[in-house]
Amino acid sequence: MRILLLMRGVPGSGKSTFIKEQGLEPYTLSADALRLLYASPMLDKAGRWCISPHFDKQMWPFLLQTLEERMKRGCFTVVDATNIRGRDMTAYKKLANEYKYRVYVVDFTDTTIEEAKKRNLLREEYKQVPENVIERMYAQLADNKVPSGITVIKPGELSQIWYKPRDLSAYKKVIHIGDIHGCYKPLKEYLEEINPQNYYIFLGDYIDRGSENAEVLQLLLQLAALDNVTLLEGNHEANLRDYGLPDGIASKEFRMQTASELAQAGLSRKAVYNFYRKLSQCFCYTYQGKKVLVSHGGLARMPENLSLVATAELIYGTGVYEDALDVDMSFAKHAAANEYQVHGHRNYEGVPAEVNEHCFNLDGAVEMGGQLRALELSEDGFVTKMIASNKLL
Questions:
Q1: What is the pLDDT of residues 170-218, one digit of tens each?
Q2: What is the pTM of this model?
């Protein structure tokens, strides 16, 4: 998911050890590891092996470029560097704002200088740094604060950042609404009004292909402000992002139809972009003993830690477009008795809404003459609804 975790502390403060202990190495960009890509360990003037600092001018832009590529996919990412200077963290913050990331700093600055020096000497020779470097960095800490907009946590508080399912058991129903694709009439027929006793989850792909894109978006702009509504991001919502950005290039399909509909309805690019910024990556909840994962694309299993799943996989689904049925079968194979998933986006085989006892596919191809699919969960269980030609089937 779109979370950036920055380590902050002097060499020897325990950052890399913490990453290893937390099992976060596969998600980490390490400044020292990248330095070693540019040059193998070299001898210093005292005859000791060290990591060369001579390629830092190339390494830091490479790190930021790599980070941006990961952010485009919404990958959970850890940056293992000292991150002492405020201006370095400002560069991360700028990227995070562009790609809808939350940024956290894990603060190791409480480690005493004596302890840092001691730990430094216990590391492999080529990883050790001169003591004067540690002393200089400690002095820099006093003049460099963490920029606003970045949340600071201590190593023992890492669990605070992880996604946690929300308990919706107090609601009468949980209602899931599948891909709409600019088809306002069937949506409005099913959703005559919002009941405050129900919770509503929209699965994304609100626009394109249909001919009522502006009406759909106008309705969703109203619903986005309600506490009992969650709007997920689908792959077609990237067009809303690109439409709202000064240098964004939306798809040809969007430009030829959807954009003109939005403009004629008086929906500004800024309003459209702000709507996109409010969309969620996924939604996981519990309801009277059931645990339900809702995403646009569908996953092959219920993740132990949802925060570690890339946003691109949540939106496009595990595998490729044609894998939807296999993915649902895999989810059912791995699922506990009380675990379920609901998704849309792809229905290559034309499966019914209830794919198996654990999975629901709400892509009914409404824009192609099919049905708008909805799924209702109450104390009596799951009930599927299909809306087509202004009739509830």
A1: 999 999 999 999 999 999 999 989 999 999 999 999 999 999 999 999 9
A2: 0.94
Reading the block at residue 252, the tokens are 């040809």
Q: Which amino acid is at 226?
A: L
| Mean pLDDT of the 373-388 span | 96
Q: What is the DSSP string of 278-340?
A: T-BS-EEEEETTEEEEE-SS--SS--SSGGGS-HHHHHH-SS-GGGHHHHHHHHHHH--TTEE
Instruction: Give percent helix, percent strand, percent coil of the chain, each to the nearest 5.
Output: 40, 20, 40
- DSSP code at position 145: P
DSSP one-letter code for 265? T
Three-state DSSP state, 124: coil
What is the pLDDT at residue 392? 44
The 10s digit of each residue's pLDDT in 224-276 is: 999 999 999 999 999 999 998 877 788 888 988 999 999 999 999 999 999 99
Q: How much is the average pLDDT of 309-328?
A: 98
- The mean per-residue pLDDT over the stretch 18-27 comes to 97
Q: Which of 283, 280, 296 is nearest to 343 (CA)?
A: 296
Q: Which pair of tokens denotes residue 89?
A: 């963290």
Query: What would the mean pLDDT of 52-75 be, rounded to a whole number?
Result: 95
How many whole angstroms separate alpha carbon 359 and alpha carbon 349?
Answer: 15
Give CA angle at 90 (84, 92), nearest 5°.
Answer: 95
Q: Tell which residue, 350, 276, 349, 285, has the closest CA to residue 315.
A: 276
Long-range CB contacts (within 8 A, 24+) of 316-321: 316/235, 316/345, 317/343, 317/345, 317/346, 321/346, 321/348
Give CA angle at 356 (352, 357), nearest 5°: 130
How far is it, in rounded angstroms, from Cα 317 to Cα 310? Answer: 10
Whether residue 311 contacts residue 102, with contact meaning beta carbons closer than 8 Å, is answered with: no
Q: Which CATH class is domain 3-161?
A: alpha beta
In the chain, domain spans: 3-161, 166-392
Whether the pLDDT of residue 40 is over 90: the answer is: yes
**166-392 in CATH: which number?**
3.60.21.10
Q: Sign of the CA dihedral 184, 189, 190, 191?
A: positive
Average pLDDT value for residue range 277-289: 97
Residue type, 342: V
